Structure formats: C-alpha cells, structure tokens
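If your schedule permits, I should be very grateful for your opinion on a structural question. I would ask you to consider whether the tokens describe a fold that such a sequence might reasonably adopt. Thank you for your consideration; the sequence and its tokens are set out here.
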Amino acid sequence: MGVTLNIEVPFPNNQQAQIVYDVLRVDREPSRSGVEKELKVKDCILVAKFTAELPRQIRVSINGFFDKIDLITETFDNFGPPVSESYSHFNNA
C-alpha cells in the first residue's frame, strides 16, 4: 500500500505558476528515492502529486520541493515579476 500526497500551491497569476512549473519539471525524482512526482498547472495554481511506499520518502521529497519553490519565489521578490506578457522559454524545446 502506497502513500499519496496532493499539494496545491497558489501563485499571483498563471504566468508565475507556469514559470515555477517549468523550473521544477526538469528535476525528476531520483529513482532510488522511490517517489513519483506529477506536476501540472491549473489556472494560477501549481498542482503536485507525490506517491511513494513510505511517508518518510514523501517527506524528504516534499522538503526539496518546497525549498525550490522558496528559492523561485525569492527570485520573483528580488527581481520583480516577469516583464513580458508571454513566456515561452521551455515551449520551444
């Protein structure tokens, strides 16, 4: 029996949620962690689903997840919100 944790992280707008998603989606969970992570953006909310066999595995993954979100939001705070209306950095990949 596995453990699943669903998290919704709100952002001021869809563009910031999409940027956070694009930054986080490139970091796959290590296979040895035993955690599966699914990310998506719904309006201005980043939706994350973590699945693992043990709660401890999810806890470790969640700590890293929120550390990265904290760093990204600090970057928004320090440099201001995106100045362009369009954001397509990863869309061309």
